[in-house]
Each structure stands twice: as structure tokens, then as C-alpha cells.
Amino acid sequence: MSELVPFLSSVRWQDLVDVTLSSYILFRLYFLFRGTHVFRVLIGIALLWFSQRIAVSLGLIVTSWGIQGITAVAAFIIIVVFRNEIRSVLQAKNLKSILWGFRYVSMSTPVERIIEGAYELARKKIGALMVFPGKDDLEEVVHSGIPWRGLVSKEMILSIFWHDNPVHDGAAIIQGDRIIEVGAILPLSRREDLPSYYGTRHRAAAGLAEATDALVIIVSEERGDVAVAKGTEFDVVGRREELARILRQHMGLPLVEEGYPKKQILRLGIAALASFLFIAGVWFSFTRGMYTLTTLEIPVEYTDVMAGMEILDTSVNAVRLDLSGSGALVKSIRPEQVKVRLDLSKGVVGPNTFNITHENISLPPGVVLKTVEPPTVEVTLDVPMKKELPVQVDWVGKLRKDLILAEAKVSPKRIRVVGGAQIVDGISTIYTEKVPLDNMHETGTMTVGLALNPASLQIAPDSDDRITIKYTVKKRVE
Amino acid sequence: MKRKPFAYLFAVVCLGVFLHSHAVAEKNEKASPAEADEKLTLVQAAMCEGIKDYNPYNEAVVFSRTIGKVSCFTSFDPVPEKMFIYQNWFHRDRLSTKIKLFLQPPRWSTFSSIQLREADKGPWRVEVTDQGGNLLHILRFSITD
Fold this sequence. Notes:
Chain A is built from 13 helices and 22 strands. The longest helix of chain A has 26 residues, at 262-287. Chain A has helices spanning 4-10, 13-33, 37-58, 61-81, 83-92, 95-99, 111-123, 154-160, 200-211, 240-251, 262-287, 327-332, 421-425, and strands at residues 128-132, 146-151, 171-175, 178-184, 215-219, 226-230, 233-236, 291-303, 310-314, 318-326, 339-343, 350-355, 361-362, 368-373, 376-382, 384-396, 403-411, 414-420, 430-436, 444-449, 458-459, 466-475. By secondary structure, chain B is mainly beta. Chain B has one domain: Sandwich (Immunoglobulin-like). Helix content of chain B is 9%, strand content 48%. In chain B, strand 2 and strand 3 form a beta hairpin. Classes of the chains: A alpha+beta, B mainly beta.
């Protein structure tokens, strides 16, 4: 309890928005993609990632590499392989339905359509076998079925069992709202107590019902009645309401059709809660996990210098930031995510001292600034001005002992420079780069550049930056 | 910052040199009104390794530190009256020393020197000004190894 209060007080409103928004996005993804292959694959990827973390923690090098590789390309695979399903989900719905819609899409068996289909077949005396699997796997007992995967409708049922349809003799297996197989061959019952007028269709229905927990609807071609087989029971159902009750009971559906089934509401509620808990867990591990410290050297960006002024000098070009946060966050910080900006709009000509505060530093969410070193920055601002300066040669080295450098004429004699007024005011000469004397034995000419000191000093665009020196070497008089 | 004399043992030697024997003090004192209006004029200025026979020798723009000293020689003609000039020695743009030199009419030559140290290497200039601070001439040179 004593730890809960400081924890709650440290939670920002941004964190609440963050978790709520992310949870809702996750929940919406579940809602939009539930029942599709994409969702199953996403769950698979999540399991892969989880396995990879376990493999890493156990030190299984090759396994973790392998799973990591698969997980890395999985997102790409999903987009490529399931592009049609993703497109159908996103295209079929408008923005409102993507963001807000909770339209109930029945994934359960459309009982009314089946009943209508069955009694219509009976009325027309068209024989039919419809299998509704329970929890048992039918693969072992049902053979030769042709995959169909069509949505259940009265018309579809009628067309499957139409006399001229090649699959009309077999059984149709109906799961959820789809006919998954047609033309399926069911095992025949060997019971002796079945009425003698029951033909192969009825025996097949009885055989499957005995062998599994599936429910089978039989439409008699001779008598035009509808019967239901489940377990060892075999009943002719004359009333539609009765058949609806039997089917709903078998499928675990409420006996009365509801607008939005409680089971669905419960499922969505669980999904919403799971989304929230998952995101909260991720958020907690990212922001409230093990605290880690790191130090970054970040260059200072000087902004909003007043018009007509320029930065002459700064005490530092970069500051050292001590940052803390959860291990995952701190490890993922890239220097370019951290900015230190100093607003110089209030600076004046001359030296200015600026404190570096939290407002000057932008950090990734969840990362906390501990200290800044140095906490202040000296910035010297100045107004740029032009000045014409005489040029002087900066000779270095040693001339031969018997020689003297009697004269040196420079061209141009003066150069215009641009720099801060305070700097330029203190300069009365501009020097050439260092010119060595060591190999000068006779009169000659050379061209040299200028040494700009300080570096903020610049040669005016209309001025020459190369200096020609005509020098005269003479013999020394002893 | 002004260069401290004891710091680098500079020697300033002020010598009055009469270049022509016929220019005597009495005559100067009885100068005509036209001569009295004459303006101080610098007729020669040079950096040199030394002064010999009242003249600079080995005039140059580069001096090795190993020669020990460097001199700034200036010659004025006419000198209208007793007055003084300054020779301001700058190492780069920093005033190193300011030397006051007296002049006597009608002509006068004078010089100042500095002793050279390791730290004196680099570009120098000497600004010659009259007693009112008006710039008469700038001499530029370098001290090297």
C-alpha cells in the first residue's frame, strides 16, 4: 500500500491516455480480424515472440536466433499472404465501423435458414442429409467429403441436394454459418431395430449419430418428412419450432434469438479486458520496469537568434544529459531522439548566460532527465560588420644565415573582412597563413592564403582571399 | 597589455644624431617665419639589425631571434622645434611597448630597439606617431627562429 500511492501519483494523464488508446486499438484489431486466419497467425506470432524471449532467457542461442528470424519476417508474410483478407476487412467497412462499430456478426449456425431449407426439401420430396458436428472429430468416420466452405442459405441447401447435383447423395457437414463439406459418406448403422422402410440415407444418419456426438437431419425422399438422429435417438420432427429447439439445444444457442447474445458480450468483454491487461503490462514493463541510468552527449541547437545578430562564441557546443528510465526505454534511446534547443530570441549583444531547463530538452516519452552538465551556457552575440584590414605576412622558419629578407610587398595590401563588431573592432591586421623561410634563397613571388582568427571571421565576398607576396632576398652585410 | 621592461630586457637607446654640421642651435632659434611653419616630416623609417655610422644596416622584414635585438630607425627633416615622437611596438595586435623619443630641430634621426626572446616570435609592427598621437608611419616585420 505504501508503494501504491507514490506509484499512482507518478502516473501522468498521458500514461492513462496512452494505455487506454493502445488497449482500444488492440481490442479493435481483435474485433475486426476475429475469426479470420490473420488473427490466428497474429496469435501465432505472439506465441513465437514469447517463445523467443524464453529461449533467450534460457540461453538457447540457435533456437532464439531461429525464432527471432521467423518473427522478424512474419509481419511481412502476413501482409503478403493475407493481403486479401486484410483488404476485405478494411474495405468492406466504413471508417466509423472500423473505429466504433460493434455490429454483431453471427458466427453461429443460422438455424432458421436450415429449417426453412430442410422443410422446403421435404415439401419437394428431395432427400437430404445434414450433419452438425458436436465436440467429436468427424474426420475418422466421415469420408470422401468435398470441401465447400459456402455460407449457409436456404437456396444453397436446396441446390446441394437437388437431384442433378453430383454431390446430392452424400451428406452436407454444417459448422457455424458455413457448409464446410458436401458429398460426405457416412458410416452405416448395423442396428436391427430401425424401421424396415428406412433406406440407406437413414442408416447412414443413424450410423454417424451412434459413432459420434453429431446431430444429423434427414429429409426423406419417399415420405417427405424431416427426422433428427442424435446418439441412438431417431425422431421424426413434424414442427419447425421443435426442430429449431433441437438444433439450438445441440449447438448451445439460446432457445430464443437475441439481438446481441450474452455469450458474445461476455466474449467481447473478456477480449477488452485482456487487451487492457496486455497493454498495461507492456506499458508497465516499458516505463516502470527496472530503472536504468544513461549519459548522452547532445549538441546544443541555438535557435531564434535576433535578426541582425550572430553567435560569436559559445561556452559549450554540447551538454551531457543524465537520463533515467526503464531498461527497455533507456536501451532504445537514440541520440537523435534527444534535442537540446536554446532560444536566443532574448539575447543581447555581448555575453549572455542561459540556463538549460527541462523546457529546452525534448526526450522520448517515459525518459526522465536527472541532471544537465553544464547547467548554464554562455553565448556571446554580436552584430556582424565589415572592416578593411591591412595584410601582413606571417613568416616562420629560418632564413639562411648569409641572407636577409630585405623587402616583401603584398597584393592586395588590404582585405575586407566580415565578423562580429566586438571581434572586428579588436583586430587591426589580418595575417597570412604561415609562410616558411627555410627554402627561400633568392628573390621571388608566391601566393598564400589568409589565416582567419577567430574562425568566426570571414573574408567579405567582394574581397580576394589569396595574397601575392613579392619578396626580395639580399646578402647580409656583416 | 603593456610589455614590461624587465620581462624581456629590452633596451631602448635614444641617440641624437646630427646629420649635417651646418645645422646649429643658434641658427635654429633665429629661424625665419617660413621655417617656423614647417611641419615635422618623416623622411626615413626602417627596421634593421642595428645602427652603424648613424645609419641603419641590414634593413629587413624578417629577423632571426638569434641576432639578439631589432631596431626601428626613423629620420625626420625638418624638425620645426624640440618635440618628441612615439614608437609603439605591437606583437600581433597587442601593444608590447611604447617608446618616447626626443627630436631636435632642424633635422633629427633616432631609433629604438628591443631585445629578442623566444616568446617574441611572430608578426610585429611598429607605429610611429607624433607627440599628438597622429600616425606617421607603420613598419611591419616578423621575428622568426
